[in-house]
Design goal:
Low-confidence stretches: 493-516
Number of strands: 11
Distance between the termini: 65 Å
Oligomer: single chain
Helix content: 55-70%
Amino acid sequence: MRFLRLIRITFICWRYGLDELILENIRHPIATFLIKVTRLGRTYKQPRGQRLREALEELGPIFVKFGQVLSTRRDVVPHDIADELALLQDKVPPFSSEQAVAMIEKSLGKPINEIFAQFALEPHASASVAQVHVAYLFNGQKVAVKVLRPGMLKVIEKDLALMRAFAAIVQRYIPDGKRLKPKEVVAEFDQYLHDELDLQVEAANCSQLRRNFNRPERKGLLLVPEVFWEYSTQDVFTMEWMEGIPINRVELLREKGVDIEKLARMGVEIFFTQVFEDGFFHADMHPGNILVSLNENTFGQYIAVDFGIVGSLSEFDKNYLAQNFLAFFQRDYRRVAQLHIESGWVPADTREEQLEAAVRTVCEPHFDRPLSEISLGQVLMRLFQTSRRFNVEIQPQLVLLQKTLLNIEGMGRELDPNLDLWQTAKPFLEKWMWERVGPKGLVRQVKKEASQWSMILPAIPRLVEQNLSREDQSAEILKVLQEIKKEQASRKLISCLMAVISLSAFGLALYLIFEV
């Protein structure tokens, strides 16, 4: 079966001319000869990106998903191909209702009529990994029931085995193969697919995002469905039904009285709130996954659905991004270069002035346009491109962020062509930086660590003494220690200072604890 699958893949690749995409990157007389031979009888009017997209669609849902993942890796995929792959639609015919019911009953351990008061056999939506049915709980709650497509694991494992073999060939024989890191890309796709096959992962993502936006200060920003854990397993995900209009139906939203300009600004605020405050963001924010509520109580609010792809950022990532954005819009290219070097993603021997010049070359043209026309997503992409020239390995979470930011910009400017993304984002970034690195951030961090200080500080003098007394210290430290021991007066002075510092710090910790 795997051999037949390989033959079919080879034929489709030949029909769409994908063999040329590979051979043209091999600078060898044999490769040139093969291109001439295989081109006989074949002419292509479509660009290479379109041909690749159509081939992946014909190969099936797993290859469609692989193309979607590749579209986010603009650090390794040419832009014309990445733009085309972003158009891939994950839509396949639904599987039978009997199979869906059997999967639910097996997963939840009860007959369907004992689980739901009503269950619609006709699926509401269908994708490659799962499909969604409408149902009602016995308390009258309307829910969406997401059911995993049967037999997906076997299909995925077969296609992944072929992808791994192909990646190994590309990495070994194509000149640029090592930089493209095809094995790592396939491994990333492998992890992404297996996570998506566990619907509890998606349910947990949904639950986390809902908790983040249920805070009082964020009321009215984003609606996230409630997860019903008692009706959710690895194969079934049951959540609150959310009713709304897709974000790209602008004229209909306008007819219903939705403030489109406000909606565009809210989208930017939601994105930056997720990224810079939570470090956890919905990373698949295309129009099919973002709705707008017309309910009387939540009119005009965003609704998020489908939580299979999320991104996470560390405090280091958030600080790196915020400072890069601010430095860019202040035209402080030296600071941008310093940030790249300080991050450790650029080799230590990189010359700061060379990196600064490269950043200036790719970024300065943006300022020939009004700020309202500058794309933050494009800025981030340019920075990644520049970094790649200096052998930096861009972190996957930042590439995912860039893809999401491009989606947000596209949606925002589709709603309001005059949206000035920078004017919306700049105050948020400046506020974030002030709260993190200013006095307010220092006080908050001290309070956060205060409970630990009360236990650690009293032990500091003993720990310092033990450390200074260790026999395995270097010769230089031992020499200094011997000199200190000889000078009794100096030693007493140091002990007194240590005691004063420890008592002061301990008192500060107690004050902060009781103040909190």
